[in-house]
Amino acid sequence: MKERNNEEKELNLENSKSKSADGEEVVETVSVEEECVDINSELNKLTTENERLQNQYLRAVADYTNLKKRTEKERRELLTSANANLIGKILPVIDNFERALQTISDPEVTKGVNMIYKQLIDILSVEGLEKIEAEGEQFDPHIHEALMQEQNSEVADNTVLQVFEPGYRFNNKLLRAAKVKVSSN
User: Fold this and answer.
1) 10 in a domain, yes or no?
2) Whole-prediction pTM value?
3) pLDDT at residue 33, as a whole number
């Protein structure tokens, strides 16, 4: 207890003497308790500021992570869209290969064209192109485009009888609807 009083007196002596403008010594007393209150107040301010900055940092990190995810998603969507656009332009070439294979009479030429056609189809299939099988299936306006209707009692109503132009999906999205002839009773 005496030690504390001595320390307090020393602190009071150190802090209590200052000179006024006229050169007279003015005694100011600052107690240890007041000093502790000031220090605690400053500590509370700094703690509050630290918490604010920590929260701001965490929000910035979360925003950056979300931006990174969104940018990656947009990049994938853009790439898929560009690929779909390119493959859509290749579909008429595939149609022409199929027509050529139906009309070529020379077996050697047919074999060569068929090899090229199969290679092209295999490459596009790996990238996500899928031919829509339509003949004999029930008509679905989401993937089929009816060009003709024919009376036919041998099959169920709205069955695809013939495919004029095949439809395709790319990565499970419709790229081109199949153009078909549909039965009616």
Assistant:
1) no
2) 0.65
3) 83
Q: CA-CA distance, 24 to 138, in Å (whole number)? A: 108
Sort strands 173-176 and 144-151 into parallel, antiparallel or unpaired.
unpaired
Q: Tell me the residue range of the domain where 107 lies.
A: 31-127
Q: Say what angle helices 32-103 and 107-127 make with each other, to 10 degrees.
A: 170
CB 137 within 8 A of CB 160: yes
Q: What is the CA radius of gyration of the chain?
A: 42
Over the chain (185 residues), the average pLDDT of each successive run of 10 is: 49 48 55 87 95 97 98 96 95 95 94 96 96 95 96 92 96 96 93
**Residue 114 counted as domain residue:** yes
Q: Is 144 inside any structural domain?
A: yes
Q: How many helices (H) and strands (E) does the chain have?
A: 3, 8
CB neighbour list of residue 130: distance below 8 Å, 6 or more residues apart: 168, 169, 170, 172
In a domain, residue 5? The reply is: no
* Helix, strand and coil in the chain, % to nearest 5: 60, 20, 20
Q: Which two tokens stand for residue 166?
A: 């095949």
Pair (71, 100) in one structural domain: yes
